[in-house]
From TrEMBL:
Residues 1-20 are annotated as: Disordered. Pfam families: DUF3027 (PF11228). InterPro entries: DUF3027. This is DUF3027 domain-containing protein. It comes from Mycolicibacterium arenosum.
């Protein structure tokens, strides 16, 4: 028996293979079941509204899917998909399934995101509680130290220390986030000046292992209270020169309020 290879473009939401070898006679039976598929939708749906026929695609050698536009309120861009099947030698197909599926232009709800991933920086408000994730890679037991040799030595000798501290990965993660953020050397503000924070009198270096690279800005007219990279800079640097005086240096100013007016 002759066979044909049907290549049908699938919607973006359907990962089914686009080329299936189907015997010619069986392909005719499957593709000819358009009206049967339409009748199945009308029987299945409450409104019985079926839109334009969009074509058929083969799922395997004995089944095909017929698609119709769905004229259903609230489902713009969706499609009716009717799966029909037949075995070799059959004179007619049977309906296997009727479903409503999203088309390429369908409006879909965003993908579900776990709660701990939905919380973003800035979401925490007064009175809110936010615990770290279990086995948070940013935290390690306090007895492992904070990475600063002087602090770790003193803490271990005295027996003091926090229950948990930032791990090396946590420190590097924070450093990369700060470096790439609004107060890093790549920001628009930093690129607009040649002056660096590490040379500024308002720059307060951090203690510990991040000290050489980061500090806190103490200038209320600039990035006051924010962690800034040592290579960040702004126009409010402590060495910014004062603007030139206004007026013309060639002439002395005068006050016309003290001039004497005389009649001609």
């Amino acid at each position: 028996m002759d066979s044909v290879t049907e290549e049908v473009e699938q919607p973006a939401s359907d990962p089914t293979d686009t080329a299936v070898e189907v015997p010619a006679e069986l392909a005719t039976v499957l593709t000819g079941a358009v009206e049967m598929a339409r009748a199945a939708i009308e029987e299945f749906s409450e409104d019985g509204v079926v839109g334009e026929y969009l074509g058929a695609s083969f799922d395997d050698p004995t089944a095909a899917t017929h698609r119709f536009l769905a004229d259903v309120p609230g489902y713009q861009g969706w499609q009716w998909a009717v799966v029909v099947a037949a075995y070799p030698g059959s004179e007619r197909a049977t309906v296997s399934e009727v479903v409503l599926v999203p088309g390429p232009t369908a409006l879909l709800a965003p993908a579900w995101v776990p709660w701990h991933e939905r919380v973003q920086p800035g979401d925490l408000g007064p009175g809110d509680l936010l615990s770290p994730q279990a086995d948070d890679p940013r935290l390690v037991p306090g007895f492992l130290g904070v990475g600063d040799p002087d602090l770790d030595e003193v803490a271990n000798e005295v027996g003091f220390g926090r229950r948990q501290v930032l791990s090396q990965w946590g420190r590097m993660d924070a450093a990369q986030r700060w470096y790439d953020g609004d107060y890093g050397p790549g920001s628009a503000m930093a690129r607009a000046t040649r002056r660096l924070c590490r040379e500024c009198g308002f720059y307060l270096p951090l203690a510990g292992s991040l000290g050489p690279s980061f500090g806190v800005c103490g200038n209320e007219m600039s990035a006051d209270g924010h962690v800034v990279a040592s290579e960040y800079g702004c126009g409010a640097h402590s060495d910014t020169p004062a603007p030139a005086s206004i007026g013309s240096p060639m002439f002395d100013p005068f006050d016309d309020g003290v001039l004497d007016l005389a009649d001609q």
